[in-house]
Amino acid sequence: xxxxxxxxxxxxxxxxxxxxxxxxxxxxxxxxxxxxxxxxxxxxxxxxxxxxxxxxxxxxxxxxxxxxxxxxxxxxxxxxxxxxxxxxxxxxxxxxxxxxxxxxxxxxxxxxxxxxxxxxxxxxxxxxxxxxxxxxxxxxxxxxxxxxxxxxxxxxxxxxxxxxxxxxxxxxxxxxxxxxxxxxxxxxxxxxx
Length: 193
What we know:
It is a single chain. The protein is mainly alpha-helical. 68% of the residues lie in helices and 0% in strands. The protein contains 6 helices and no strands. Residues 1-6 and 71-78 have low confidence and may be disordered.
């Protein structure tokens, strides 16, 4: 007494070999048949495609409509007024907590930005003072003085300006020129705009 099976099907999953498109057509065809929709739903539970997930949601909703006492979901038609009020209160409380949590996140984000800015100003301010003094400038000097001092250093240490000097002196001047250029570039970056 062997049971005849079609390739790819089992008694538990009669629609195993059907595509999601076929299952959709079957669901439409048997839209009012509770038993058939249960079998289709069982097969859709094993599928991982977006189309199958959409169809599964539609079939689940239809199963609830056909059988409100089904354990597959809850129907608002069967819910009592007290249950609905309790759910509304719970939703209102949850919404209040969510709003409070969102406000707390905004407050913490603002505080974090304030601390970061303060920390950055403290670190960059100390470095700004140190670098400014290394080239003889005040940290808050006007831009035109900053540019004038930068040009003066360039004129004094530029290797082309020292072409008549010995090679060792030119190399030392070139190294100082590069060092001062780095200092002025860093100062330009750190100075308040």
